[in-house]
Design goal:
Length: 318
């Protein structure tokens, strides 16, 4: 039997980008508390091995879900419960002025490990790499990982990904698919638990089904504090800057070919002066979505308060 108290601060990030606290974990499933800050649009995700059940506690948001039978967008608010069956594509966002908070039950457990899950992501063939705390199995400072096929089959078992790793006060991992196969593993650090100011660096490349953490190519290691996302059917990448505090309220995106050569950049000016940027996203159709910084939020008319605002460029990376 287990009894746990509510964690005082977030303990990581979900594969889609929500701040999470681990509430319970067992052989048959797990339960987490998730929070999405105002204005954040989380990454589109498909779980290859687990189903999720949500109950919204507070805040306002929307979730898009798609499976073989169709797709729908659901309004999220306190008291609403939804399910996300295995294989369902989904993406969600916080539309209110307060964080969207919900409980999430995952069935079965995400990975065959006793370690806390620090990150996860998929390659272009929908094989999933799950990254975990490997200290219990491989010793202190170890980060472990485990590959799953698109059908949920365990491909490798838990293996040591990194050794001698030193985490910061708010550290997690993210995974980016590569056009030639496999994934690039990225370390992400935040200045505090809100995740509003990030810094990041790609650490290694792992081919699908491999247990080896290979060196990152020069074109990727030289691009710090960005996230790459495959576009144009995997023939190129969009380079998206991390959310952070900037003196000039703009974000710069870059288009990179499959070999790492820059094809050009685009500045997205939001307002004059300083601000804290938010996480950019690219839709499946190549649409670039930008949650605006607070100074650029839509306000009024009249006494109506300022509210989270987005803008987008349809098919920009098509």
């Amino acid at each position: 039997m287990q009894t746990r108290s509510f964690p005082s601060r977030p303990e990581g990030r979900s594969p889609a980008g929500a701040e999470i606290r681990y509430l319970m974990e067992g052989q048959t499933g797990g339960m987490i508390h998730a929070a999405v800050p105002p204005g954040q649009v989380n990454r589109a995700t498909v779980h290859a091995t687990v189903s999720e059940f949500w109950h919204v506690l507070s805040g306002e948001g929307q979730i898009w879900r798609r499976d073989a039978s169709g797709e729908e967008t659901t309004v999220l608010q306190g008291g609403v419960s939804i399910d996300i069956p295995v294989g369902t594509a989904f993406q969600y966002r916080c539309t209110g002025v307060d964080p969207l908070q919900f409980l999430c039950v995952t069935v079965p457990p995400l990975a065959n490990t006793v370690g806390v899950i620090f990150g996860a992501g998929m390659d272009l063939a929908s094989n999933a790499l799950v990254i975990t705390d490997g200290s219990a199995k491989f010793g202190g400072g170890s980060i472990s990982a485990q590959w799953f096929s698109s059908s949920g089959k365990d491909l490798t078992g838990e293996f040591q990904l990194l050794s001698g790793f030193q985490a910061g006060s708010n550290t997690w991992f993210e995974v980016s698919a590569l056009s030639g196969g496999g994934v690039a593993v990225r370390r992400v650090d935040a200045t505090d638990f809100t995740g509003s100011n990030l810094s990041s660096q790609y650490l290694c490349v792992v081919q699908a089904g491999s247990k080896t953490c290979d060196a990152v190519p020069d074109w990727l290691s030289s691009r710090k504090n960005v996230r790459i996302q495959p576009v144009r059917g995997g023939a190129a990448y969009a380079s998206l800057p991390d959310p952070t505090a900037v003196s000039d309220c703009k974000q710069t995106v870059e288009l990179i070919d499959a070999n790492g050569a820059s094809c050009g950049t685009m500045d997205l000016q939001m307002a004059s002066g300083a601000c804290t940027t938010r996480q950019l996203e690219v839709g499946k159709d190549g649409t670039l979505i930008q949650p605006l910084a607070d100074p650029a939020w839509s306000c009024g008319p009249g006494d109506r308060p300022c509210r989270p605002t987005w803008r987008w460029w349809s098919g920009l990376f098509r």
